[in-house]
Amino acid sequence: MTTMRNWKIPPKDSIVAAYIDCYWLLEKTADDEGPESPKLNPDPAGHIIFIDPVQPYKYQSESDTSQGLGSHFILPYSKTYLMDHSQPFLIVGIKFHVGALYSLKLPSSELEIEKILGINTKEVLSINTDQVITDSSRSPEEYRDYFDNRLTPLISTAHEDNHSKLVRKTIHIFPNTPLSSIGIELGCSQRTVERSFLRVTGFTLKQYDSMLRLEKLLDYVHQLESSKLEWADIAFQFGFSDQPHLVRYLRNVIGSTPGEYAQRRDLAIDTYGNFE
């Protein structure tokens, strides 16, 4: 078994970095082993995925299935997707910051979430997918410089209003501020923060908080061997009232109980590492 090639790198241009979180690459060859259907946990950001125009993609949730060919846009989502990674592939991705799609008017004038859409990257981003995929031998730094340069015209059209500015401040203080105190901390009503956050991101503060907590929990669990997972302690550490509460939470968001997850280790982070 070979080691899957993957990397991620943030933008170098500070203006681009205000809207783009990172660029990333993942390659799976015929010699690589791992789950054929890894799970992608909820993400309040958006990703543009560059793949070969004839390569199929498929994402399945409890309620629907999205599939197609070629490059596509994974819009912010609050559910777990089951991916079809049974065949070798090369993926290059652009990850946006939470709320960036609102200011960039992507993928349209109205913010959309919970969708996966095909995208003409040359038309929308002035980026030729063929060049991105066929030149995959480039270093991460070369990719970074290429994307920074190509995305500058799009970033220059970004529109910041009072809602997006308030959400930027909210996200900045979020990790160290109790949910109920955010309005007080920002000098406005909690209702004002809630309305702007929903408008800009598509999610409530509570949903965003839940997704952040899940990300931190899964990153923590990923680093431990299954035999060393003490779920009662993990429940306490991540703010759950008890272990049954954690069990219900994980079953609801990733479709597995802690025990089932520990046995399968079938999330994308377990298969590919925390690279994107």
What does this entry look like structurally?
The protein has 13 helices and ten strands. The strands form two sheets. The chain has a six-stranded antiparallel beta sheet. Strands 3-8-5-6 form a four-stranded antiparallel beta sheet, with no helix packed on it. The mean pLDDT is 90. Helices cover 41% and strands 17% of the residues. Helix 6 (162-173) crosses helix 8. It folds into three domains: 5-155, Sandwich (Jelly Rolls), CATH 2.60.120; 162-203; 209-272, Orthogonal Bundle (Arc Repressor Mutant, subunit A), CATH 1.10.10. The longest helix has 18 residues, at 205-222. With 276 residues, it is of the alpha+beta class. It has helices at 14-17, 100-104, 121-125, 129-134, 140-155, 162-173, 182-186, 190-201, 205-222, 231-237, 243-254, 258-264, 268-272, and strands spanning 5-9, 20-28, 39-40, 47-50, 56-60, 65-69, 72-74, 81-83, 89-96, 116-118.
Report a brief summary of the structure:
This protein is an alpha+beta fold and 276 residues long. Helices cover 41% and strands 17% of the residues. The chain has helices at residues 14-17, 100-104, 121-125, 129-134, 140-155, 162-173, 182-186, 190-201, 205-222, 231-237, 243-254, 258-264, 268-272, and strands at 5-9, 20-28, 39-40, 47-50, 56-60, 65-69, 72-74, 81-83, 89-96, 116-118.
